[in-house]
C-alpha cells in the first residue's frame, strides 16, 4: 500500500467534515519533558510550523530554569504537571504507578502540590493546572482531593469516565510500547483517528487527543506526526486546539 493510500481514509473522512461545514478538533499532549534537548527542539519546530499547540507534560522533580528559558519563546506551548518524579512505587508484578495506593495519600498529595507550585512558578505564562499521571495511572481515591491542591483537570489515556474533576484525555498513542517501542504502524493509527472522528461527527465523542513522547521517537513516529499535521492543515476541516481552550 502506498503512503497516499494509507492516508486516504483520513483524507476522505475530513472531506466529509468539510462538506458538512464542520470542524474536527485535535489536540496534542507530549509527555516526559525535563530539559531542552534536540528531540524537544524538533517537536517544537514541527508544531510551530503547522501552528499546532502542544501540551508538554513536565516532570517537576527533575526540571528547572533551562526548560523554562527554552519555552519562553514558544507561544504555542502549555505546561502540565507530570506527577512528581515519575518514579514507580508499585511492587514487582504490578503495573508501574507513581500515584497509586502504595504510599500514604497525604504524601502523594503533598508531592503533587509541590510539583504544581514549582511548575506554576517556572512557567507562569504558559502553565495549566492539569495533572498528567505517569503511565496514565492514578488511584481513584486521590481524585476528590486534586481540586483542593490546585488542580482543575486530569489527563490520562482513553475515553473519559465519570470523575469528580474535569477530564481531558489523550485517545491515540503514537508509540508501540508493547512491541518495538518505536512509532506505531501508520495505517493502524489512521484507523483509530478515523473511528474517533466518526464518533465525534455523530456527537458521541470529543476532540482527538494525540499522545507523543518526543524523547523516544524514532523516524516512524516523527514522520507520522508531520504527515498528520500536513493532512489536517490541508483539509480545511481541522483545528489543533490549546489545552486552555478545551478546558475553558
TrEMBL record:
Against InterPro entries, the record matches this protein to:
CE4_u4-like, Glyco_hydro/deAcase_b/a-brl
Write out the GO biological process terms: carbohydrate metabolic process
Going by the entry's taxonomy, the superkingdom of the source organism is recorded as Bacteria
Query: What SUPFAM superfamilies does the annotation carry?
Result: Glycoside hydrolase/deacetylase
By its UniProt entry, which Gene3D superfamilies does this protein fall under? Glycoside hydrolase/deacetylase
Identify this protein by name: Polysaccharide deacetylase family protein
| UniProt organism field | Allomesorhizobium camelthorni
Amino acid at each position: 500500500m502506498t503512503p497516499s493510500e494509507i492516508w486516504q481514509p483520513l483524507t476522505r473522512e475530513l472531506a466529509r467534515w468539510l462538506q458538512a461545514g464542520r470542524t474536527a478538533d485535535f489536540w496534542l499532549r507530549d509527555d516526559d519533558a525535563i530539559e531542552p534537548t534536540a528531540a524537544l527542539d524538533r517537536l517544537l519546530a514541527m508544531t510551530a510550523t503547522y501552528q499546532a499547540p502542544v501540551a508538554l507534560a513536565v516532570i517537576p522533580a527533575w526540571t528547572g530554569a533551562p526548560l523554562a528559558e527554552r519555552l519562553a519563546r514558544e507561544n504555542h506551548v502549555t505546561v502540565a504537571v507530570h506527577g512528581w518524579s515519575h518514579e514507580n512505587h508499585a511492587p514487582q508484578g504490578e503495573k508501574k504507578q507513581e500515584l497509586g495506593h502504595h504510599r500514604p495519600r497525604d504524601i502523594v498529595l503533598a508531592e503533587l502540590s509541590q510539583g504544581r507550585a514549582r511548575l506554576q512558578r517556572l512557567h507562569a505564562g504558559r502553565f495549566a493546572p492539569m495533572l498528567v499521571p505517569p503511565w496514565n495511572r492514578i488511584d481513584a481515591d486521590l481524585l476528590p482531593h486534586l481540586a483542593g491542591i490546585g488542580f482543575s483537570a486530569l489527563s490520562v489515556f482513553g475515553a473519559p469516565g465519570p470523575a469528580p474533576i474535569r477530564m481531558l484525555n489523550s485517545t491515540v498513542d503514537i508509540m508501540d510500547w508493547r512491541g518495538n517501542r518505536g512509532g506505531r504502524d501508520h495505517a493502524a493509527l489512521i484507523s483509530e483517528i478515523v473511528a474517533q472522528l466518526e464518533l465525534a461527527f455523530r456527537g458521541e465523542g470529543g476532540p482527538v487527543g494525540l499522545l507523543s513522547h518526543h524523547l523516544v521517537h524514532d523516524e516512524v513516529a516523527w514522520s507520522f506526526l508531520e504527515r498528520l499535521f500536513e493532512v489536517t492543515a490541508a483539509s480545511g476541516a481541522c483545528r489543533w486546539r490549546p489545552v486552555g481552550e478545551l478546558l475553558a
